[in-house]
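Q: Please design a sequence for this.
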């Protein structure tokens, strides 16, 4: 690794750390600026009891002191504090339990969307302007344009209510089929279009024409040269895509009752569980930042022609 590469990686890491700090800071002060408090809705809560509960969780201290303590606990102990509503449990433990399901859901959706997207994109590129190409482009355009909550609702109404062939609850293996499909459709459509455009560009390169002139077989040109080189943009999209799927599962998990991070986040908003809201927001934002950082660094490894300037 030369000095230029090391300097680029260091700059990207510092920028990522700064971005995470901004997210933590903005999230903290926005949540504390929201009118009301986490104990306002408690039944039979007197002002004295409410003051005692605020003192217990350190909410009676000056705002900047709370911020300093919160930031210190995150940096030194990766501790987001206790949940105000799920008594006896910490925020990080609740998030970890939810992320196990959300990550499993996200990885399955990412695998499905990547494989199907690459295959459809390659077929569309090799059959450019033919009927199959037009059909694939129309379908992918529809999937890109349709929000996940609409697609999820349609799948739920069709397969769970009308046909009754899949369970509506996502807590079972069979129940994960519809959430996976819902989360996979948009990235699958995007990867299809990305693969098609990239492969068409590669097929027009001089080295492909040279290989054809030398009598190289069509399969070797397609799979050994064209498809391999056209996957570079797809590989760089995989990191942000996984982050998008996990963060985008918030609504989908609510639709299919999947016990993941989405349900935890929505319930924390409903219950005014401030530490839970802040912790979930910071974790999901950090996931996106880290995935983009890894993608930026791997882009140079995948394609050495890319300059770090």
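A: Design:
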């Amino acid at each position: 690794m030369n000095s230029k590469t090391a300097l680029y990686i260091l700059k990207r890491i510092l920028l990522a750390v700064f971005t995470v700090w901004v997210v933590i800071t903005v999230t903290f002060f926005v949540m504390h600026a929201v009118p009301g408090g986490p104990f306002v809705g408690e039944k039979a809560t007197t002002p004295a009891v409410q003051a005692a509960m605020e003192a217990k969780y350190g909410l009676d201290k000056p705002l900047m002191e709370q911020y300093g303590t919160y930031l210190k606990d995150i940096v030194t102990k990766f501790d987001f504090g206790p949940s105000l509503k799920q008594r006896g449990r910490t925020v990080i433990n609740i998030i970890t339990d939810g992320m196990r399901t959300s990550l499993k859901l996200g990885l399955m959706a990412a695998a499905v969307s990547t494989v199907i997207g690459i295959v459809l994109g390659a077929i569309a590129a090799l059959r450019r302007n033919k009927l199959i190409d037009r059909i694939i482009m129309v379908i992918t355009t529809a999937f890109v344009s349709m929000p996940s909550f609409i697609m999820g609702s349609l799948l739920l109404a069709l397969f769970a209510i009308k046909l009754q062939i899949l369970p509506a609850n996502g807590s079972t293996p069979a129940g994960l089929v519809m959430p996976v499909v819902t989360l996979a459709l948009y990235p699958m459509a995007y990867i299809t279009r990305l693969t098609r455009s990239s492969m068409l560009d590669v097929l027009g390169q001089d080295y492909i024409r040279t290989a054809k002139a030398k009598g190289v077989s069509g399969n070797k040109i397609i799979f050994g040269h064209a498809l391999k080189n056209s996957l570079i943009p797809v590989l760089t999209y995989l990191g942000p895509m996984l982050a998008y799927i996990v963060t985008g599962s918030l609504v989908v998990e609510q639709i299919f009752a999947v016990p993941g991070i989405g349900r935890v986040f929505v319930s924390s908003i409903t219950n005014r569980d401030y530490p839970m809201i802040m912790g979930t927001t910071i974790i999901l934002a950090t996931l996106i930042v880290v995935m983009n950082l890894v993608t930026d660094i791997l882009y140079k490894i995948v394609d050495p022609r890319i300059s770090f300037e």
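Q: Thanks. Anything notable?
A: The mean pLDDT is 81. The chain is about 75% helix and 0% strand.
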